[in-house]
Structures are given as structure tokens and as C-alpha cells.
Amino acid sequence: MLNKLFKYDFKWITKVLYIYYIVIAFVSIALKITEHFVNTDPSLLLVIVDKTLVSLLIGAIASVMINTIMRIWARCVSNFYKDESYLTHTLPVTKNELFNSKILSGICSLLLSALVIVVCLAFIYLDKSSIESIKAMWDSLVAVYNLPFAIAFIVGFILIIVLEIIYMMMCGILGITIGHRFNNHKMLKSILIGIGSYGLLSVVSLIITFIITKFVDTAVVNGFPSMSYIGSMGITALIIYTVYDIIYYLIAKKVFNKGVNVE
Predict the structure, then answer these.
(1) 211 or 168: whose pLDDT is higher?
(2) How far is 89 from 75, CA to CA, in rounded Å?
(3) In 3D, which of 162, 149, 150, 176 has the Cα closest to residue 241?
(4) Cα separation of the two ends of the chain
(5) Residue 261 φ/ψ region, left for φ over 0, alpha for ψ in the -120 to 50 degree band, beta for the rest
(6) Nearest CA to 8 among 113, 78, 111?
(7) What's the pLDDT tens digit per position in 202-242?
(8) pLDDT in tens, 68-101
(9) How many other C-beta atoms can be found within 10 angstroms of the C-beta atom of residue 91?
(10) Cα–Cα dist 44/38, whole Å
(11) Which of 17, 49, 136, 226 has the fewest C-beta atoms lying within 10 Å of its C-beta?
């Protein structure tokens, strides 16, 4: 049953996002064409158009990620606490399945949006010259450290970004589940709790990071931080966001399992 719930939730979240995907794809194509002509004939008009499209691309990227997270949160509210919830809570499924479906569909929606953004950026900027630059940076990374560490660095960096985005999603879901336990001003309290939960652990993260820096080697080798410093910071960030995501997931699920106040 979780599989069916997941498909339904994922479809609901992404049915509007496809509009934003089309917009960012259109902007990417236009920017790719403009970049080609700017490189061959950098006239003032083309440069202005190019800079305008770059600004539009940045806005489109922000819109995709913001609206993805907003749709995830909106799905939780509408499906758990609004009119639709009267049907949701009569389905022959457990509360854990209902809650887990929202988390899984949310994570997959975020990954899909991130993939769309990466593909669009690669389409625009990935050419022979940029590939050579990336290869040179990779060779430098491997030369200063070693191949296994370079691979771990790239993989760890991607995982940290993913975990941090999931953390933002979980802060909102935590705020929604706790905020809707109240009898009035539910949405306002949900927003405040979500912001507060994000800010609280962000401060904790800064304190932990500051403490860690006091115990690791911060020397710079050939313009690169020491291996121990990067490794320590990377592992710390991975542990922090993994723990945060799990803690907020468990708290939100426990609160949800206690019951809901349908509006």
C-alpha cells in the first residue's frame, strides 16, 4: 500500500512542477543559443540579452527548488489536515505508511528537481573548454591528495547538499505536524516552529563546527586545505545532517501518530 500512496503523493507534488521544469528548460535553450552568439560576436545587445537570461536562469533555479519544497509541505497540509484528510484518515493504511509516503515522495521530488537543474546547467555550460577545466581541477585534487580521497570528497560533497535540502524539508514537516496540534493559528505556529527548528540546529551546527576546527590541522598545502581538515569537516557535516534528518523524522512521525486535529 505504501507504493500506491507514494505514487499518488509524488504525482500530486510534481504535477505543477512540470511547468517550472519547462520554463527552466526553455530559458536554458535560449541561454545556450545566446552564449554561442556572444562567443562569436560579443555585441552590446547580445551581452545584455545574455546577462538577462542568466538572471532568469538563476530565478528559475530558485523557483524550482522553492516550489518543490512548498508543494511537499502543501501536500502534507492538504492531505492530513484539510478537507481531503477526511478521506485520507479512513483509508485502510497505517499512520506510519501515510507519513512515510510523504517523506519518500518529498525526497524523490527534491532529487528530481535537482536532476533537472543539473541537466540544464550541464546543457548550457558543459563544452570542451569547461570539460578541460573540470579535468584540470580534478587532476589537481588527485595530485594534492590521492584518488580515493578525491572520489570521497566529491561523493561526500553531493551527499551533504542532499542531506541539507532534506533537512530543510524535514524542518517544515516538523513544524506542520506540531503546529497543527494546536486549536488555533495552526499555520502561523507551523511556520514559526519550522523556522525555529531550522535556526536552532543551525546554531548547534556552527558550534560543533567551531569546536572541531580547534582539534584538526588547518594547514594549507599548495593552495588546498589539509586532508585531515577536509575529512574532518566533511564527516562532521555528514553526521550532523544525517542525525538531524533522523531526529526530526522520528519526532514528526511520533507527533503525527498521536493523532491529528482536522480543520
Answers:
(1) 168
(2) 14
(3) 162
(4) 26
(5) beta
(6) 78
(7) 899 889 888 887 777 666 666 677 777 888 888 989 999 99
(8) 999 999 999 988 888 777 777 777 888 889 999 9
(9) 12
(10) 9
(11) 136
Grid cell at residue 185 = 493559528
Give burial (CB, 10 Å; 0-12/13-18/19+) of 144.
Answer: middle
C-alpha cell at 148: 580515493
Displacement of CA 260 from its chain's centroid (Å): 27
Q: Give the Cα separation of 157 and 188 in Å (integer).
A: 34
Dump strand ranges (E) for the chain: 220-221, 224-225
Kindly state the cell numbers that stand for 236.
Answer: 562532521
With 90 as the cut, is the pLDDT of residue 117 above it? Answer: yes
Q: Which residues contact 215 (CB under 8 A, 6 or more apart)?
A: 232
Exposure letters 56-76 (e unless 16+ CB within 10 A, then b): bbeebbeebbebbbebbbbbb
C-alpha 102/C-alpha 73 separation (Å) is: 9
Q: How many other C-beta atoms can be found within 10 angstroms of the C-beta atom of residue 113?
A: 25
What is residue 221's three-state secondary structure?
strand
